[in-house]
Write a structure and sequence with these properties.
With 456 residues, the chain is mainly α. It has 2 domains: 1-206, MFS general substrate transporter like domains (Growth Hormone, Chain: A), CATH 1.20.1250.20; 208-431, MFS general substrate transporter like domains (Growth Hormone, Chain: A, Up-down Bundle). Helices cover 73% and strands 1% of the residues. The protein contains 15 helices and 2 strands. The protein has helices at residues 10-41, 47-58, 63-73, 77-101, 105-137, 143-169, 174-196, 216-224, 227-245, 250-258, 262-283, 298-322, 328-355, 367-400, 403-426, and strands at 289-290, 293-294. It has a two-stranded antiparallel ribbon with strand order 1-2. The longest helix has 34 residues, at 367-400.
Length: 456
């Protein structure tokens, strides 16, 4: 907790959730609406927006560096504001690039590359520091509920922006696109400034002493040497890989195996998102006491959510054999519930690990560096998951000679990944905990002196 500042109440948590909603508003307009305009209105290859979205994920490998920068400065607000401003510029630049593609494709594509890179940088700077500020200012019992609040508000930002933008963009013209994108970008920056006003204080006394500062590579090695941080990094990667593997194949599976129409398969995606929202709200109970009974720890909810996700995926495996009799919509809803519960519990655990007391021998605060490392692992896992699922389903279908068995093989593999993620989550005992099987990490040994590598 930040010295001299009281823990955030629900109003403060909601203010940070409002910032997250603004971040989501710009991102959804850039990655979804502009995607459709490029493919439909401009008749460009779908590969182009796919590569641009992949670029915005790849740029998020900069998250550890962004988090380190906020550690050195001691304040998170400037990084959040700077990130949102950069994101807004990138979002509007992407809309301008799409406008130029209609008349000068070369210039438009070049501007789009720059704009989507700015989007990735903005998300990295703003999103990482926002989570660190939340971790530092929220009491342990409230972290699961705080994570749920912030993420639900982000989803609301997605939904409201998509709905309003869709209304304002019809009938489509390039001028309307620029007006909508510019308006969303300006509103996002203004709301962010108002929501953060006075929330962190003046920041005096928070920056580490110059003698305690190390360069970025040394800071990253220091964090990687922490057993809990290292294990959590690998957990985030594998869980996000498992989480996103079905992204590009669930709707094709419903169409090819269950005979769903395009409209019905799109509605199935809505069913899954509804389940995710329910799971997020359910996971808000993690660590809370109801009628004197503590409803599990964040770690327990993370493990249970991963295992439940695996079971739901095995249900899809059974569905491939029993279609069309299998209750696919119920199965997908339960998958969404499990995914939502594990993701919110994992974010709460991430806040606890990042905001816990520093291990012995650490020379300076490392909350931002830790959060950035986990954010980078999340971005890599999420970016690779969709591609992996699509490629794996093609290979499995070719090997088995059956569409249903091909999809079932991928769902079964994804279930195994979730079981592995649950095993990793179960081994993360707490902030900077010493793993029982790592006897060389003796109590009192400085973390900076630990080896930078090693298996998690």
């Amino acid at each position: 907790m930040n010295a001299g500042l009281p823990p955030l109440g629900w109003l403060g948590i909601a203010r940070l959730g409002l910032v997250q909603a603004m971040l989501g508003a710009v991102v959804v307009l850039t990655t979804s609406t502009l995607n459709r305009v490029m493919v439909v209105e401009l008749a460009l290859p779908a590969l182009l927006p796919g590569l641009l979205v992949a670029l915005h994920h790849a740029v998020q490998l900069s998250r550890p560096r962004m988090g380190y920068g906020s550690d050195v400065g001691g304040r998170r607000t400037p990084w959040i504001v700077g990130g949102l401003v950069t994101l807004a510029l990138g979002g509007f630049g992407a809309a301008l690039a799409v406008h130029l593609m209609a008349t000068d494709p070369g210039v438009g594509i070049a501007l789009a590359v720059l704009a989507f890179a700015l989007v990735g940088i903005g998300v990295s700077a703003g999103g990482t520091s926002l989570l660190v500020l939340l971790a530092k200012r929220v009491d342990e019992p409230r972290r699961g509920a705080a994570a749920a609040t912030v993420w639900v508000m982000m989803i609301i930002g997605f939904a409201v922006t998509a709905g309003l933008a869709g209304r304002w963009l019809d009938p489509y013209t390039p001028a309307r696109l620029l007006a909508v994108s510019g308006s969303v970008s300006v509103v996002a920056v203004v709301v962010t400034l108002l929501a953060l006003w006075g929330l962190e204080g003046d920041g005096r006394g928070k920056a580490p002493a110059a003698s305690a500062r190390t360069d970025f590579r040394a800071a990253l090695r220091e964090v990687w040497a922490e057993p809990a941080a290292r294990r959590f990094t690998v957990f985030v990667f594998f869980s996000m890989l498992a989480y996103s593997t079905q992204d590009l194949i669930l709707e094709p599976f419903a169409g090819a195996v269950f005979g769903f129409t395009p409209g019905a398969s799109t509605q199935l995606s809505g069913v899954q998102h509804g389940g995710s929202l329910a799971g997020m709200l359910l996971a808000a109970l993690a660590g809370r006491r109801v009628a004197g009974v503590r409803l599990g720890s964040l770690r327990a909810w993370t493990v249970a959510g991963c295992l439940a996700s695996g079971l739901a995926l095995l249900g899809l495996v059974a569905g491939a054999a029993l279609a069309p009799a299998w209750p696919l919509r119920v199965n997908v809803f339960l998958l969404g519930v499990a995914n939502g519960a594990f993701s919110i519990a994992a974010i709460g655990s991430m806040m606890s690990l990042a905001g816990g007391s520093a291990p012995a021998g650490t020379t300076a605060p490392r909350e931002g560096t830790r959060m950035g490392l986990w954010g980078a692992a999340q971005a890599i896992g999420f970016a690779l998951g969709g591609l992996f699922g699509a490629v794996a389903s093609d290979i499995a279908r070719w090997l088995t000679g059956s569409q249903a068995q091909g999809y079932a093989a991928v769902f079964a593999l994804e279930a195994l990944m979730f079981v592995g993620a649950a095993a990793l989550a179960a081994r993360i005992a707490g902030p900077h905990a010493r793993a029982p099987d790592e006897e060389e990490h003796r109590p009192g040994r400085p973390a900076a002196a630990l080896p930078a590598g090693g298996t998690p």
